[in-house]
Amino acid sequence: MPTPRASGTESNNLALAGAADASGGDKVHMITSAFEHPSVPEPYRRLQRRTVEVKFLRPDSAGPVDPDDLRCALRPGTRLVSIMAANNVVGKDGLQVRLEGLWIG
Ligand SMILES: Cc1ncc(COP(=O)(O)O)c(C=O)c1O
Known about the structure:
Blueprint: H1 8-21, E1 28-33, H2 41-48, E2 52-57, H3 67-73, E3 78-82, H4 93-99
The structure holds pyridoxal-5'-phosphate.
């Protein structure tokens, strides 16, 4: 059962730090976009100083994430992909449709 949190910022910090901690100190790879709310890249930058290698996907002319860039960035050791599914600029369809078929659980 999810535990309610005080804010989106707290939730993002906990999720990213938790995913990194679950690695048990091993070097892990995570992927996000360069188009996230600041509460995502800031914790990632802290994690980069520890054991996390982070790939920031760049937007293309069609939207925040090119699905082919994401496919190429995935590795066997990728621990987490965190990309917002909707936002107030492109809505939800633009992002979800482009990433369809890439959900890996
Ligand atoms: C995707 C996303 N994450 C986090 C936040 C930050 O949420 P909060 O202001 O509750 O910390 C926002 C706020 O707009 C958001 O859009």
